[in-house]
Amino acid sequence: MLSDFHTLPEESRIWLYAAENALTKDQQNYILKVVSEDLKGWNAHQQPLTAGVTILENHFIVIALDESKNGASGCSIDTLQNTIQKIEKELSIRLMYRLNVFCKIEGEIVCIPSFKLGSTAKADTPFYDLTILLKSDLNTYLKPISEGWCAYLL
Questions:
Q1: Strands laid side by side in the 13-18 sheet
Q2: How far apart are CA 13 and CA 78, in angstroms?
Q3: Is the pTM of this model over 0.90?
């Protein structure tokens, strides 16, 4: 069941997908349309899932699921992944590649391959922690590299 992302509880589980380059308005509209259509019928074991989608900072697609009603199953998560893969193919973009680190450098979001992070960023460089699990974590997903999972890459 599609719900407004902003009205979903802060405890909602999230999935984050990141585009290497800023998404155009047309790309964002397409993504929101495709994901929203899928969320309308998203279910787990024939039970409807209450979820919403948003795009943050022209790079980050966030899907939130209110698990207080019904939780996701392996099959429902696979359905979501398939939708994202379809979008990747249709728009010729990568959204599920997890070997990139997204940093904020001089006010811009920069996608850095993890093996180049040490030559591009410092411990205090802000990065977007895409490993967060809850909607409330979006309040602090931009943090210094020294406070994140990728600190060892420096």
A1: 13-18, 60-66, 50-56
A2: 15
A3: yes
Question: Which two tokens mark 89?
Answer: 């193919």
Using alpha carbons, select from 22, 16, 15, 19 the residue that is nearest to residue 93: 19
Q: List 2's β-bridge partners, or say none.
A: 51
- The tally of CA atoms less than 13 A away on the side-chain side of residue 1 is 12
First-last CA distance in the chain: 42
pLDDT in tens, 105-146: 999 999 999 999 999 999 999 999 999 999 999 999 999 999
Which residue has tokens 């019928």? 41
CA distances in angstroms from 110 to 10, 78, 128, 152, listed in the order given: 27, 29, 10, 19
Integer angstrom CA distances of residue 128 from 47, 69, 145: 33, 29, 9
Cα gap 22→107, rounded to integer Å: 13
